[in-house]
UniProtKB/TrEMBL annotation:
An annotated GO cellular component: plasma membrane
PROSITE patterns tied to this protein: IG_LIKE
Name recorded for this polypeptide: Ig-like domain-containing protein
Chief place where the protein resides: membrane
Amino acid sequence: MPRFDMRDKDGIIFDPIAPRAGEKLVAKCTLVGLTPNDKRHVEWSLERFNDGKNFTLAVDTDVLQFNQPIPRLQAIHGTDSPDWYLIFDPLDRDDIGNLTCRLTDTNLRDVYLTRFLNVISEPVVLESSTKDIEVSDGDSVTLICNAQGYPTPKIEWQKADARPLTSGYIRQVGSQLQLYHVSSKDTGIYKCLASNLVGFGSEWTLKLSVRFRPYIYCQREVGQATDFQVDVYMECYVYGYPPPKISWRKERSAGLPNMKYDTDIWNSQKYLIEATIPEMSICTDCILSRLTIINVEQADLGHYYINATSPGFPSEFGKITLYRKG
């Protein structure tokens, strides 16, 4: 096991080493120049780098921290020995920080030595990073990825579908990803990847949802011969977030010149309404709505309307004309 002894003017020898997380660490603190009759006490403390909290780990041979539920600290002092040892087995990534050995003799002389304990560890993304988030069309938003590890991790962002970010790049470096004036095309799964010289420790994924008003793409018209016991279907792609409520209607004549009215369409022996979610490669935040007209007759010809409504937005509609073909 590598050891690096360091002596300061007070005569304390202190040898922290910098292993990887999960390995064993032995720190030694030695006080020289005291007579055998002097009584000495040692206190070990750690000011953690990750959260700034200060812990007293052990006093003499009594361990105060990290001893439950599974002991991983041991404080040792041999009889009539000037050496005190603090053993971490194993060392945790959170043990990185200022490790202090403080010694007091019978005359209450107080000497101490502090060394920064580097704990080499693979990156881990913290729970404080941005989670799934929902914003409105036109807003600006900052996605944050907090990661731990030593050496300090490098953070990269990318979209899960490998499409360019708003900056135009596939990947962007930095713990923060700023998106300005977002639109529906910014919706998707974002990945934060943390890496350092030790390796690729972890990644973080979150979904960015952008609220936007519904809009519809439909085929304009469908031709079909009548009275041949043939079905016909009409399709529309309905976009919007939150997912819009969809309904279908048919325009009918009231029997008077230029008098028209719409009737709602429901699933029946005449109509079948279906809705599916296409693959993300086709579209995101969209629904494929299909209306099937069963056994097309002359009376089925005409205009069909699809309506999409979403809370907080105006309704949107599309129109498809069924005409006689052949």
